[in-house]
């Protein structure tokens, strides 16, 4: 079929999709953690900033956000290439959703853990990264991976700003061959392969992280037991 002659172009589009997804997700994860911390902060300006950001992004279309950055910013003198504009837009969008996922995970960590950490002499930063976040990670891992897959699928919107990612490539191939069914079927299969690879890799990594070998599980259990005792001691004071 004529469409298959453009398969190298599809692979190039797949590479752009993968790269944009990884960069967007990495930036979104950082933004999500910061926003979640803001929303749980006792400093009200930070809470307001976090809340406004989440509400604005979650209640407006992703496509409009992409257009705002790619077409809107040039009006104030900021010109971004399609790839950079797309990555920024997807990162900002994904960050709002990840913020709520991470915030929900943090609320599941018992408050006594904070008291136990203070008993051990840990500061706020050490408490967050060494006590709270590792426990919250178990709860947020599945929805975070789901959000990563949503970001992968959302890269298809970047075809609207003339980025030849996977969907953009399919549009070009369709315009050249007029074989619409095959042109988009190839893109669909490649999306399916990519998201399934991510799902299986994430499942494997999750088992390694949260269901470690017996010896490591015993060591972690010993640490949890010690922390629980300290929590009880802190609560009794």
UniProtKB/TrEMBL annotation:
Family statement drawn from the similarity comment of this UniProt entry: Belongs to the binding-protein-dependent transport system permease family.
Main subcellular location of this protein, as a coarse class: membrane
Classification via SUPFAM superfamilies: MetI-like (SSF161098)
Location in or out of the cell: Cell membrane
Topology in the lipid bilayer: Multi-pass membrane protein
Bilayer-spanning residue ranges: 12-38, 50-72, 78-99, 144-163, 183-205
GO BP terms in the entry: amino acid transport
Superkingdom to which the source organism belongs: Bacteria
Keywords on record: Cell membrane, Membrane, Transmembrane, Transmembrane helix, Transport
First and last residue of the signal peptide: none
Keyword Cell membrane: yes
GO CC terms, sorted: ATP-binding cassette (ABC) transporter complex
InterPro entries with a match to the protein in the record: AA_ABC_transptr_permease_3TM, ArtM/GltK/GlnP/TcyL/YhdX-like, MetI-like, MetI-like_sf
PROSITE patterns found in the cross-reference section: ABC_TM1 (PS50928)
Keyword Transmembrane helix: yes
Domain ABC transmembrane type-1: 14-199
GO molecular-function terms, A-Z: transmembrane transporter activity
Name of the protein described by the UniProt record: Amino acid ABC transporter permease
């Amino acid at each position: 079929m004529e469409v298959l002659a453009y398969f190298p172009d599809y692979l190039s589009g797949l590479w752009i999709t993968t790269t944009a997804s990884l960069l967007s997700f990495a930036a979104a994860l950082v933004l999500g953690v910061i926003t979640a911390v803001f929303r749980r902060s006792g400093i009200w300006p930070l809470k307001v900033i976090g809340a406004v950001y989440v509400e604005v992004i979650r209640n407006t279309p992703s496509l409009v956000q992409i257009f705002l950055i790619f077409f809107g910013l040039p009006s104030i003198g900021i010109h971004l290439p399609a790839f950079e504009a797309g990555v920024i837009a997807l990162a900002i969008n994904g960050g709002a959703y990840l913020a709520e996922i991470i915030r929900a995970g943090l609320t599941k960590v018992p408050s006594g853990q904070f008291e136990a950490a203070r008993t051990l002499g840990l500061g706020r930063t050490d408490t967050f990264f060494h006590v709270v976040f590792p426990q919250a990670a178990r709860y947020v891992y599945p929805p975070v991976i789901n959000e990563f897959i949503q970001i992968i699928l959302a890269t298809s919107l970047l075809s609207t700003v003339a980025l030849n990612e996977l969907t953009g490539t399919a549009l070009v191939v369709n315009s050249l061959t007029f074989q619409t069914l095959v042109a988009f079927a190839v893109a669909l299969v490649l999306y399916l392969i990519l998201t399934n690879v991510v799902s299986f890799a994430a499942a494997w990594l999750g088992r390694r992280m949260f269901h470690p070998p017996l010896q490591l599980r015993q060591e972690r259990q010993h640490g949890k037991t010690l922390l629980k005792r300290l929590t009880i001691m802190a609560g009794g004071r």
